[in-house]
Amino acid sequence: MTKRALVRRPGPRLAEGLLTHLERVPVDVDLARRQWEGYVAALAAEGWETVEVPPADDCPDAVFVEDTVVMYGDLAVITRPGADERKPETAATEATLRDLGYRIARIEAPGTLDGGDVLKHVTPEGGTVWVGLGGRTNAAGLDKLAAHLAPLGARTVGVPVSLVLHLKSAVTALPDGTVLGYPPLVDDPAGWPEFLAVPEEPGAHVVVLDPSTVLMSTSAPATRALLEDRGLRVVAVDISEYEKLEGCVTCLSVRLRD
Ligand code: CIR
């Protein structure tokens, strides 16, 4: 199976990206460009081919390509981002996925949904899709996504998100389905069936690269050690400039299934 992921090059206005929970601090755009190259190189080194969505230089947050689509098998559900500034980002994602041969569905008004609010755990028995309801994703967006995914056997569940930007800023999942999060920023840690508390905020963010490997930020060394103790291999990348903009490792790519 080809392992393929969408990415989107950062634009010149990156430093103007939206902030909700953090104070603005200067972003070094040249460093951010190098960190993006490092992120793409890390994917490539792990056998992931990357496909670039054409850049959207007028959209400061376009590099966070995860927010523009939810992939489920061969279906690409194009989102309707909750922030108006980000709504123009979806057109090129849709065109790219259409060209790659994926089926296209859309979240339509009045629904809003950001891909960062969607956490999937798919097993041969079926999939569970948790959708964070917070500042960016509303109930109509969740309902629309649930309607698109139900025929594919997915169960969609809404969960509250009030302490961070997106559900996946609070929690992500390991290959075995264990959900990890930094408890002070998780609305309901006890609500997850298998929850692993991590000691650092960026430690909550992993991208599963294969059944025994995860990608995470270099800014969570104690969590890295915790995961290595569980037998996982960890690939770490420095994404400091994106973390200043409330981004994390998950936001910078979208993994595709063939
Ligand atoms: C925003 O506020 O939309 C961006 N500055 C950060 C988006 C991060 N995306 C993600 O967590 N999926």
Protein model, in words:
- By secondary structure, the chain is α/β, with parallel strands linked by helices.
- It is built from six helices and 15 strands.
- The strands form five sheets. It has a three-stranded mixed sheet. It has a three-stranded mixed sheet with strand order 3-4-5, sandwiched between helices. A three-stranded mixed sheet has the order 6-7-8, with helices on one face.
- Bound molecules: citrulline.
- Residues 17-18, 20, 61, 64, 66-67, 83, 86, 116, 165-166, 168-169, 245-248, 251 line the site of citrulline (CIR).
- Belongs to the DDAH family.
- Keywords: Hydrolase.
Offer a few descriptive terms:
258 residues, alpha/beta, three-stranded mixed β-sheet, 27% strand
Low-pLDDT stretches are none
Kindly report the average pLDDT value: 96
> How do the strands line up in the largest sheet?
2-1-15
Number of strands: 15
The span between the termini is: 7 Å
Structural class: alpha/beta
Biggest sheet statistics: 3 strands, mixed
The string of secondary-structure elements, in order, is: EHEEEHEEEHEHEEEEEHEHE
Shape: globular
Strand content: 25-35%
Bound molecules: citrulline
Radius of gyration: 17 Å
Q: Helical amount among residues, as a percent range?
A: 10-25%
Please, what is the oligomeric state?
Answer: single chain
